[in-house]
Amino acid sequence: MFMWYQEVSGNERKTFWACFGGWALDALESQMFGLVIPLLLVYFAISEEQAGLLSSTTLVTSALGGWFAGALSDRYGRVKTLQIMIVWFAFFTFMAAFVTDYYWLLALKALQGFGIGGEWAAGAVLMAETITSQYRGKVMATVQSGWAVGWGLAVILFSVIFSLVPENMVWRIMFALGLLPALLIFYVREYVQEPVKQIAAVQKTEHKQSIASALFGIFSPSLIRTTLLGGLLGFGAHGGYYAIMSWLPTYLKVERHLSMLNSSAYLAVIIFAFWCGCMASSILLDKIDRRLNVALFAICCVITVRIYLLVPLTNTQMLFLGFPLGFFAAGIPSSLGALFNELYPQQYRGAGVGFCYSFGRIFSSIVPFLVAHMSASMSLGSSIGIYASWAYSIVVISALLLPEAKGCDLKQINLDE
Hints:
Elements: H1 4-7, H2 10-43, H3 48-76, H4 78-95, H5 102-130, H6 136-144, H7 146-164, H8 167-176, H9 184-191, H10 196-205, H11 211-216, H12 224-245, H13 248-254, H14 260-285, H15 290-310, H16 315-331, H17 333-341, H18 349-358, H19 360-364, H20 366-374, H21 380-401
């Protein structure tokens, strides 16, 4: 599974750790919010719909951040953009620790989301252009597994802090620790190199390609079908994921009546399963069609989610079923980095990848809000299950309509295409 690590160059390994670390820290910043939602509901005396708006706003701005940062990386370079986005999301997460008003928290969450979306776009293209095509699927999926690592760190930090400090201070301390990821830029500056092909691209387009042309070039006649289908795939992938994960801690606490610490055990199973799912996907991606891999995991997600949330299960049964829930949820996002990078020429790759992966978040951003709204007339579990099932069905359809370019040499794509 990890034989590739011994066979790639030192630069490829260093780039891997930078991108893996960046994505893990993205997850740490993002998932800590889902864990503290029950505390925010009490502290700010807000409704579940208002909490859903926090999640939805973050998704919208992360979509804009992914698209804009992708275009920025096309114009000024992948490494420079990656550093800017890491500092951005760390700073605004830290600032959220000091708010005393719901609307200030909403504003800071919006700014944080912009950086989280931007970090993924810059890092995903940087990794895809650096790693040899032979191992692109394996490495991109392994980078995505960093989400499970960051998610696990968030749960561990939350459990420790929750047991040591007063409940009304837990969320502030969690957000304050969000400044730590900024330290990653020292590693990036020292060890990560810009892909040679991108250096040439930046030099060639320095006086020709504006940010606007990078942003909107993905809608040219030759690329618009790919861009729209990719955005639809991103919508389904994120809609399904956030419908479940934004509300899962609250569902476990409110409807399953688990304590905050006991619900962490359930989340631990799902997180470990998510990592395993990324690893399984990393093997399949270089063996079968990228699109079929996405569709396979999405179909399994629909089945598992409906059983987990809509069938009356004992707590023990839920614990065991948490593994396939996390496992199948991982296979979709872990496939998208390789899939999207292989669909775009050099000068539009950052914008294209950032748009397809992130822009679906704008449309999917309404899903957490709708889940909360529908839960007023039915159980929260039923609401989550219905929306997640529809979202994953969209993933299957859009994935199968996209072209397949598995294993193409990104360095050979001509800038003038």
